[in-house]
Write a structure and sequence with these properties.
Helices cover 34% and strands 18% of the residues. It is of the alpha/beta class. One of its GO terms (biological process) is carbohydrate derivative metabolic process.
């Protein structure tokens, strides 16, 4: 019998970077006969909402869970402490029945009941903390990670956060997410194209307002494609209409399996986030040889980008600095080798990730 690995997650849309990483991780482990995996989503986030109100019971199916033979806990009360009790009770029965060797928690609250259930009932599994967000996100209390046997940090700065919260350094493992090696995309020469791919939030985490404002300060022949969906889609559309650069924008709404197919041949990726974990879109862009212009937010961009070498960083909220970098792309002053960009993230590619993953569970 191989080692059993249980991965717990919650409050995900099914369209984000974390879901992609869990799918890839499941694929790698499933093809190795030494391991069996089970993934449980404790809440679908927006899937439990209807007309702005919480639905207690969710009957729908989520393709990302179905594709990896996982399961979705259907209940959500919207009351924090009650949901915690519901989740803990459900996971108790899963742990007793499944008897895993490892419990991997993507949320900090999951660490609490995974550890308490283990101690109360004398179970032998290892508990791993694997968050996909930084302290700056405000999602949970990282101090609960001291209850884990090991902590997997998807960025170097998250590793630092673990240690500052009280986790012993020898229990912290640098464990960045995997990316596929992709064909290099040829850049367009006729018109400079910038692209944003992700959740449509005008402020908050993604700060798309900064991108729109920066575009209004840039001269020349260029366009900005905004690809994705989210609760601020209509606000963003209206804000673009009132921008002096309104003719420069193309808003492509909706979640698609291949957003890069819609992106075409962009000259640069734009990211203006207030916070990240390890931004998947940067790895996807760089694997295609696309130069990335990103805010220097906590955490993740610096794991990929060596400023002024394989990409460019600007301070969070500094619209003028972002506009200046965009202008340099339009003027042809920023034009690094796509091959060098793709090679610079060699450590992040799937073959290297597989080595790291199997080492964790050995």
């Amino acid at each position: 019998m191989g080692k059993k690995i249980l991965i717990l997650t919650s409050f995900v849309s099914g369209m984000g970077g974390m879901e992609k990483v869990i799918e890839r991780t499941n694929t790698i482990l499933s093809k190795n006969k030494k391991y069996t995996t089970r993934i449980i989503s404790l809440s679908g986030g927006q899937s439990n909402l209807m007309n702005g109100k919480t639905k207690f019971f969710y009957t729908g199916k989520e393709s990302w869970i179905s594709n990896i033979n996982g399961s979705r806990f259907p209940f959500r009360s919207g009351i924090k402490h009650l949901d915690f009790i519901l989740h803990a009770t459900y996971i108790f029965f899963v742990l007793i029945r499944y008897r895993p060797d490892y419990v991997v928690c993507t949320g900090f609250g999951q660490l609490v009941y995974a550890n308490k259930i283990r101690n109360l009932f004398g179970l032998k599994y290892k508990v791993l903390s694997w968050p996909h967000f930084s302290i700056a996100s405000g999602f949970g209390n990282i101090k609960y990670s001291t209850q884990a046997d090991y902590c997997l940090g998807i960025s170097k700065e998250i590793n630092d956060e673990f240690i500052k919260s009280g986790v012993a350094p020898e229990k912290v493992i640098y464990f960045p997410n995997p990316f596929s090696r992709m064909d290099i995309i040829k850049r367009k020469n006729d018109i400079t194209t910038f692209v944003f791919i992700g959740r449509l939030l005008i402020d908050g985490q993604k700060r798309i307002r900064d991108i729109i404002d920066a575009a209004g300060k840039v001269n020349g022949d260029f366009c900005v494609k905004i690809i994705g969906d989210g609760e601020d889609a209509e606000l963003i559309e209206k804000y673009i209409e009132n921008s002096p650069a309104n003719k420069k924008f193309e808003l492509l709404r909706g979640w698609v399996n291949d957003p890069w197919g819609l992106a075409g041949n962009p000259n640069a990726l734009l990211l203006a986030s207030a916070f990240e974990g390890l931004p998947t879109v940067i790895g996807e862009a760089m694997s295609r040889g696309i130069v990335c212009i990103s805010s220097d937010c906590k955490t993740g961009p610096r794991d990929f980008i060596e400023d002024e070498e394989n990409g460019y960083l600007f301070p969070v909220g500094d619209v003028d600095s972002l506009a200046n970098l965009m202008q340099r792309v339009v003027d042809g002053d920023i034009n690094p080798s796509p091959e060098i960009i793709a090679k610079s993230i060699d450590f992040f590619y799937e073959d290297r990730y597989e080595e790291r993953l199997l080492k964790v569970f050995n």
